[in-house]
Design goal:
alpha/beta, D-Maltodextrin-Binding Protein, domain 2, 19% strand, 5-stranded mixed β-sheet, 13 helices
């Protein structure tokens, strides 16, 4: 008896049918997925974002595993808070790690309609750095001097302006008794090395880089301040509350994992910074930066009032806006 042979045309038809079925399955799965777009900055003060992004990069996504196979995570990297808030307003980002001042400003700017803080992230990790041996000791000493900050209106920018104003200096958006110069973090490092600026108010790992690579020393170590929170668009919270609840739970679990596994967390954060900044950060640098941050998922409305007062003192907020709805618990 001869072997049964499938006619060539039948094999072609079968192969085509298999390909069509595979394509249909892929398309169906794609249509069933919900994309969640998450932002963060290339800073140690955004450590949960760095680590979760790194896990996604290696196919072992922390959020993906906890939010479900129907959720696709897309990551976006911003230089500072105002850029991230513009992405929120443009609806090109759903959730982002960001400083408290840009979040408050965006909330007030939108009449409380656009932004909700859903968790804390990091306290500390920000500082005012001057040249080693500098005579600059108090705010009054900065008359006629230049201070760089990451971006106009970001948390460190507001902190620098408020500190100078509290010290008796008149500070305007264009100048005043001292110049506050919004400058991207990598550019701050170069300008500081060249001594074209007198000081920098920024966050880790840039604080430690200024110390180790540019002979800087910390004048103000702002370890108690809230540096980073997790925010979402109000419409996303309203329409995807279950998803946001899962996300906050996953964020809290990641925060606890970081606290229990600092060595591994440092390694992953450093690896992600290397990828995003296209450079190599030394383990010693990251360890130094790490020592200045407090990783937390807690945040309260009362703790944000200080930032609102600072923003008011330098003209970013006028009057006494109601921020009672800013912090939300999904």
């Amino acid at each position: 008896m001869s072997d049964f042979v499938i006619p060539r045309n039948a094999r072609i038809i079968a192969t085509f049918a298999t390909l069509c079925l595979s394509l249909l399955t892929t398309v169906t799965q794609s249509l069933a997925q919900t994309t969640l777009r998450i932002g963060h900055f290339p800073n140690i003060t955004h450590v949960q974002g760095l680590i979760a992004h790194n896990m996604s990069r290696h196919g072992q996504g922390w959020f993906e595993q906890r939010l479900g196979s129907d959720i696709k995570i897309e990551w976006y990297v911003y230089n500072a808070g105002p850029s991230a808030m513009e992405a929120i307003f443009a609806k090109s980002t759903d959730v982002t790690y960001v400083g408290p001042n840009p979040a408050i400003n965006a909330y007030v700017r939108s009449g409380g309609k656009e932004i909700r803080i859903i968790a804390g992230s990091v306290n500390g990790g920000s500082a005012l750095v001057v040249h080693k041996g500098s005579s600059l000791k108090t705010a009054a000493d900065f008359r006629g001097k230049k201070i760089a900050t990451p971006q106009f209106g970001n948390t460190q920018d507001v902190a620098a302006r408020a500190w100078l104003v509290a010290g008796g200096l008149k500070i305007t958006q264009a100048g005043g008794d001292a110049q506050v110069l919004p400058t991207a973090n990598p550019d701050q490092l170069l300008l500081f090395k060249q001594k074209q600026i007198d000081a920098v108010w920024t966050v880790e790992p840039w604080v430690s880089r200024l110390e180790l690579e540019a002979d800087g020393e910390v004048l103000i170590d702002d370890r108690q301040a809230i540096t980073t929170v997790l925010v979402t668009r109000a419409d996303v919270l309203a329409t995807r509350q279950d998803l946001m609840r899962k996300l906050v739970n996953a964020h809290q679990e990641l925060t606890n994992w970081i606290l229990k596994n600092p060595a591994e967390a440092e390694r992953m954060a450093r690896e992600e910074l290397d990828e995003e900044m296209h450079t190599k950060f030394s383990p010693d640098l990251i360890a130094k930066a790490w020592s200045r941050i407090v990783v937390t998922s807690d945040v309260t409305l009362d703790s944000l009032n200080k930032f609102m007062s600072s923003a008011q003192s330098v003209g970013f907020l006028r009057g006494a806006p109601d921020i009672s709805q800013l912090v939300a618990n999904p």
